[in-house]
């Protein structure tokens, strides 16, 4: 015990296997425990980095998908606008055609009225000619 105290004063200690150590057994145990806690902390940090990395990757994929859907929506909207413009142009063409056909119909109606008048005049002339004989 006296030798152990003298060694302890010199900063030397025996461990549980009776090996000579520079650290006190209690300090050595605390150091080992701290080393284990540090290893566990480093492992957890690495795991956390992996989780964060995969989360960032997922967010990037979602952002790309959202951008792609946005582009599709813009394309669809532009297509609808151009279809609407085409329809408008077609409608204007049809309106012009209708107006043209109405004018043609009016010309034909007037021509028909004139022909009816001529026919009536000719029938009247024929009737008079027959009656004169």
Automatic annotation (TrEMBL):
GO terms for cellular component: centrosome; ciliary basal body; ciliary base; cytoplasm; intraciliary transport particle; neuron projection; non-motile cilium. Keywords: Cell projection, Coiled coil. Pfam families: IFT20 (PF14931). The keyword Coiled coil applies. GO terms for biological process: cilium assembly; protein localization to cilium. It is found in: Cell projection, Cilium. Residues 80-118 form a coiled coil. It comes from the Eukaryota. This is IFT20 protein. It comes from Callaeas wilsoni.
């Amino acid at each position: 015990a006296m030798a152990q105290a003298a060694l302890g004063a010199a900063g030397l200690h025996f461990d549980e296997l009776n090996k000579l150590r520079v650290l006190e057994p209690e300090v050595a145990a605390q150091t080992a425990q701290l080393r284990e806690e540090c290893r566990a902390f480093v492992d957890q940090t690495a795991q956390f980095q992996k989780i964060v990395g995969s989360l960032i990757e997922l967010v990037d994929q979602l952002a790309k998908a959202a951008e792609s859907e946005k582009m599709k929506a813009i394309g669809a909207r532009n297509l609808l606008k151009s279809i609407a413009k085409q329809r408008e142009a077609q409608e204007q063409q049809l309106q012009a055609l209708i107006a043209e056909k109405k004018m043609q119909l009016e010309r034909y109606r007037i021509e028909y009225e004139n022909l009816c008048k001529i026919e009536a005049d000719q029938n009247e002339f024929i009737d008079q000619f027959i009656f004169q004989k």
